[in-house]
Amino acid sequence: MNYQCTRNSAEHVSAAQAIAQGISEDGGLFVPESLPQYDSSVLEGMKDGTYLDRAERILGDFLTDFTPEEIRECVKKAYGGEKFSGGHPAPLVELPNCPAPVHLLELWHGPTCAFKDMALQLLPHLLTKSLQKIHSDKTAVILVATSGDTGKAALEGFRDVAGTKIMVFYPQNGVSAMQKTQMTTQEGENVAVCAIEGNFDDAQTGVKRIFTDPAMKETLAENGMMFSSANSINWGRLLPQIVYYFSAYSDLLKAGKVQLGQEINIVVPTGNFGNILAAYYAKKMGLPVHKLICASNANNVLTEFLRTGVYDRNRQFFTTISPSMDILVSSNLERLLYDLTGRDSERVAGWMQQLSETGRYEVEPEILKQLQEIFYAGFCDDAQTCGAIHEIYNMSHYVCDTHTAVAIQVYRHYLAETQDTKTPTVVASTANPYKFATSVLLSVDQTKASGDDLANVRALEALTGAPIPQPIAALEGKPVRFTQCCTPDGMSDMVLSGLGIAKE
Ligand SMILES: *Cc1c(COP(=O)(O)O)cnc(C)c1O
Q1: CA 205, CA 488: separation in Å to the nearest integer?
Q2: What is the CB neighbour count within 10 angstroms for residue 365?
Q3: The whole model's pTM is what?
Q4: What is the pLDDT of residues 197-209, one digit of tens each?
């Protein structure tokens, strides 16, 4: 199977090339030429397999230039060892006492306690193999823009992986104290972390600019290096996310919670549109999905887009308690639009150009109609997010993080609006609550919170009895290794100096 570029459908590359390169030279994103189709016999067949079996099957259908042995090895390294606690990388937990059947898909059992681990524990292995396949002996320089969780998960995934270096940029005031501590204390010989004076969009725009800057590319090549990406613009990030939606359905089938072919809803707390796009691909591949529910925080640019067809980033940017969703330019929407237009790269390129020039574009009624059929979109503010955490804890004794709470709150709006209490619903639970301990504790019982994140971790444990994940407990007393900060314009220089390349 080959991959096309969303801004130039004449471009065709192998899976290895798409993963190694991360993003097309014209700034477009790689997408598979076609999607494998899974009928009910395939779904039935996956039911009894392990997570690893399910991942092998799905990856194998997309990465046809990898041998089955190579895929098995990558999958085993990512999900087979001790990296994911509890034996199942993506278990389902039913939320008791709900007006409708709700299952939380816990995607945060990996080493950094956010769902990004699901892809970033696998990507380094796929990338290393991809580089071999395209006969590159260059060192892959992974540049990452993060709103908090990708950075840490990428650092942990790539640390000390031979033939790679990684540099992460995060918004100085746009991540939680815990996220910052996780990143600035990162261990490893090939890692670097830098704050930027700006928000996530500034970081992401800066990284995209560096990727597509011919002079930077040449400078790296002269030094035996090439850029690659670990953001969800890389196909190797999205593909592993398709797996867990099929896995969730298989687990529901196995537990007798759905009948073969019965539709489910999937609710996803959304930022860069990567996670929900993976669910969309799963639906197109044959997963029985009724609605994809796109949940946003106060940065509700996607809610407006999915409801009106107008994408407009010219609005106030809010820093919220669900910082991994504080995004106004959702990169992966481009892949959705490419698909919905019947792979019309000219139209997509036009919209993306309007977006970069004016910050706005509008899709035609025929596209909007498709969006509304597939998606339900909603948002909530911080007060509602806190309220949801509080109520879920009281109702079900389940402690959820701020991002998952946004999803549950928007699902409640959906229930109120549609009365759809029959369709079993899977909510992507994207972070462990201890990762956002202060906000979660304030929501559960504000009298117990102090100004210190790690103290709040202990207070939350004392209050709820939810176990503290080992990687978070281990942060206490870890030395800070990275204190650099730069402006968005200074990012290129920071990359070059981080790589030890003198400026010409
Ligand atoms: C990254 C992230 C999201 C948003 O996911 P996208 O794929 O960017 O839409 C939601 N919740 C958490 C905890 C995250 O880390």
Answers
A1: 9
A2: 9
A3: 0.94
A4: 999 889 989 998 9
